[in-house]
Write a structure and sequence with these properties.
Helices cover 38% and strands 14% of the residues. The chain contains 7 helices and 5 strands; from the N terminus they run αααβαβαβαβαβ. A 5-stranded parallel sheet has the order 2-3-4-1-5, sandwiched between helices. Keywords: ATP-binding, Cytoplasm, Nucleotide-binding.
């Protein structure tokens, strides 16, 4: 039998096709959407690359220049204006670990389970960093405080857990939160829109 030699180039190639083991239970098929598939919106694309992709790909450059990258980006606009499609293109083009969460799927009828689900999402994101967590329909999780009083206040607790994970005592390193909504009026403005963790707001135009 011939000798098998593993070179550095082989390892580097393998790292591009092998996903971390922590991603197995949250692995998703990222659609092959490219930036070229999204017509126009060049300014939005550039801002997303600068705010999400560049800090995770080149953290040493940001550290050298003393720039603090944003921890979160909120995309908002009317239905059908390519918010989710832009997120798919970012996931595909960046090559970063991408966790997609549909807002309502984290809610549970059992006390404490919704907050635990939020903690678990961020635990997995930290385990596979650098990564992007995408919350579609974030208004389902971050509704205005007090609006869920009839349901035991679960919405307030989920929002508090989300804010704690993003900007709490335990620093969120190499994880960027990307969220989309078509109902920004439903989001708790004092918590998310004015919160330092969500430092980039992108409004999509009417289609």
């Amino acid at each position: 039998m011939g000798t098998v030699t593993v070179t550095l180039q082989d390892l580097q190639w393998a790292m591009t096709v092998v996903k971390p083991s922590a991603m197995r239970e949250v692995a998703i098929d990222v659609p092959k959407v490219r930036w070229s598939d999204v017509g126009g919106m060049e300014e939005v694309k550039l801002k997303l690359k600068q705010a999400v992709e560049w800090p995770l790909r080149h953290p040493e450059a940001f550290s050298r220049m003393g720039i603090q990258p944003p921890k979160g980006v909120l995309l908002y606009g009317p239905p059908g204006c390519s918010k989710t499609m832009i997120a798919k293109a970012l996931a595909n083009e960046s090559g970063l670990n991408f966790l997609a969460i549909k807002g309502p799927e984290l809610l549970s009828k059992y006390v404490g389970e919704s907050e635990r689900a939020v903690r678990e999402v961020f635990r997995k994101a930290r385990a596979v960093a650098p990564s992007i967590v995408f919350f579609d329909e974030i208004d389902a999780l971050a509704s205005e405080r007090g609006s869920s009083s009839g349901s035991g206040g679960v919405g307030d607790r989920v929002l508090a857990q989300l804010l704690t994970e993003m900007d709490g005592i335990e620093q969120l390193r190499d994880v960027t939160v990307l969220a989309a909504t078509n109902r920004p009026d439903m989001i708790d403005k004092l918590s998310l829109v004015s919160y330092p963790a969500i430092s980039v707001l992108m409004k999509f135009p009417e289609c």
